Structure formats: structure tokens, C-alpha cells
From TrEMBL:
This is Secondary thiamine-phosphate synthase enzyme. InterPro entries: UPF0047_YjbQ-like, YjbQ-like_sf. Gene3D superfamilies: YjbQ-like. It comes from the Bacteria. SUPFAM superfamilies: YjbQ-like (SSF111038). Belongs to the UPF0047 family. PANTHER family: UNCHARACTERIZED PROTEIN YJBQ-RELATED, UPF0047 PROTEIN C4A8.02C.
Length: 133
């Protein structure tokens, strides 16, 4: 069964820690061992795993991506958000995380982030939890 998580970003570029929401879906699915697939249903948002302990990491990532792919008046996409499409491609739109003993298998400092590149907006992430046979 595919479930959907919904989030509201706060800024044009934002990194939203969705780890606890994903873990809650794993818990409610009752899967002890398996995988959790995540897919962002948007072309101007992405998903990644990175450090969750120090918010400076998210600020540095946002700052770097904004410098790497700035809003450019020479982009030809009529909506003016080509930079967001490129950033989404760079971060990717899907993740698979192992589930071990009912918990997402993440390192000590790792968290799951929904990456907003064209906000603020409402965003949806599709989630599928699969039990090991």
C-alpha cells in the first residue's frame, strides 16, 4: 500500500526534517524488517539523507546549492524556476531506507530531509513500506 505524507515548506529553499514522520509510518505499518521507499511527487523538490544534529549543515547545503545553481534570468523556462528543477535533479527525488527491528536504519547523525527549491508550497511524499519475505 502506498501512503502519502504532506508537508508545508516555509521558504523558497527549505530543508524539512521528515525523519519522525517517516518512522511513524514504518511503525504503523508494523514492519519489523524490510525497506521503506520514499518518492517526492514534485519536479522542484527533492529528498536526501544528511546530518540532523547541527542545523548549520542544512544552511550550508542550501547556501551551496543556491550558489551552484542561482536563479538565472537566462534560463528559458517560462515559470522562472529552472534553478529549482536543476536542484531537484541534483538531490534526487527518491530514497530507499532499510528497516531493521522496526526502525529506519540510519546512522547516528543522519536524518531524512525533504528539500524545497520553489516554495513555500505544500508538498507530498509517497511512501511504501515493504516487509522482508
Amino acid at each position: 500500500m502506498i501512503r502519502h505524507l504532506e508537508f508545508k515548506s516555509r521558504a523558497r529553499t527549505d530543508m524539512i526534517d521528515i525523519t519522525s514522520a517517516v518512522q511513524e509510518q514504518v511503525r504503523s505499518a508494523g514492519v519489523r524488517n524490510g525497506v521503506c521507499h520514499l518518492f517526492v511527487l514534485h519536479t522542484t523538490a527533492g529528498i536526501t539523507i544528511n546530518e540532523g544534529a547541527d542545523p548549520a549543515v542544512q544552511r550550508d547545503m542550501v547556501s551551496f546549492l543556491d550558489r551552484l545553481v542561482p536563479i538565472d534570468p537566462y534560463f528559458t523556462h517560462a515559470e522562472g524556476n529552472s534553478d529549482a528543477h536543476i536542484k531537484s535533479t541534483l538531490t534526487g527525488t527518491s530514497l530507499t531506507i532499510f528497516i531493521v527491528e522496526g526502525k529506519l536504519l540510519l546512522g547516528n547523525w543522519q536524518s531524512v530531509y525533504l528539500c524545497e527549491f520553489d516554495g513555500p508550497r505544500h508538498r507530498r511524499v509517497a511512501l511504501k513500506v515493504v516487509n522482508d519475505p
